[in-house]
Design brief:
Layout lengths: L1 H19 L8 H32 L5 E6 L8 H4 L4 E3 L1 H4 L5 E6 L7 H11 L5 H4 L16 H10 L1 H14 L9 H10 L12
Parallel strand pairs: 1-3
Antiparallel strand pairs: 2-3
């Protein structure tokens, strides 16, 4: 319940910012909810990393800021937004004031094609997540991703019926759709109806 309240408060804050500052545009409350979800996921992933880095630096007892190299598996081919990144750059947000740490971000597989990634995985004999093997997803992300195609969401709803039902219940309570062009209730109905799911395309994030 607290998570939902924080989500709604963040979405409302985005609408307030858009109202106060003409240069910021939020078209609807639904759009604000999506933006708040993306921000929340990003902060959830980043905050534990920053806490860990701060503790490590404190334990080292250095008289200077620690140099940290953050390696991430982002690739240019995954989305237009990621293609604008650079393979190596300072991570200003993770660095903060720079008193305790200086963080650089390295994307070692930035230029790899998808077939090169799979070739390396198979050559190393690594296990492959069920999202790819069992459910035929083109990428591993949130179970019900706001960026996913309809076909991907239908498959995800079949694989996670309880979660999809909770999303649909939230839609009904708030009166807002999961996405501007699609309601999770419609996805759940299609998933429960059975039948063939069309080809699943990758999606940008």
């Amino acid at each position: 319940m607290k998570l939902i309240v924080r989500w709604l408060l963040l979405a409302s804050s985005l609408l307030l910012v858009a109202y106060l500052y003409p240069g910021v545009t939020v078209t609807s409350f639904g759009s604000a909810m999506i933006a708040a979800l993306v921000i929340g996921v990003f902060n959830t992933l980043l905050r534990p990393l920053l806490v860990l880095l701060t503790r490590l630096v404190a334990e080292l007892g250095l008289s200077r800021p620690a140099r940290v190299l953050s390696c991430m598996g982002l690739r240019a081919a995954e989305s237009p937004a990621r293609s604008k990144l650079v393979p190596f750059a300072p991570d200003e947000r993770a660095t903060g004031g720079g008193r305790r740490r200086v963080v650089d971000r390295w994307l070692p597989i930035f230029a790899w094609r998808e077939d090169e990634v799979w070739a390396r995985i198979h050559a190393a004999g690594l296990p492959i997540h069920d999202a790819y093997v069992v459910h035929g997803m083109p990428r591993l992300s949130c179970a019900l991703c706001v960026f996913a195609s309809r076909a991907a969401l239908v498959k995800a709803a079949r694989a996670n019926p309880d979660l999809a039902a909770r999303y649909a219940a939230l839609e009904a309570r708030t009166g807002h759709r999961f996405r501007k062009d699609l309601a999770i209730a419609a996805v759940v109905a299609e998933a429960e109806a059975g039948g063939e799911v069309g080809p699943i395309e990758g999606w940008a994030a």
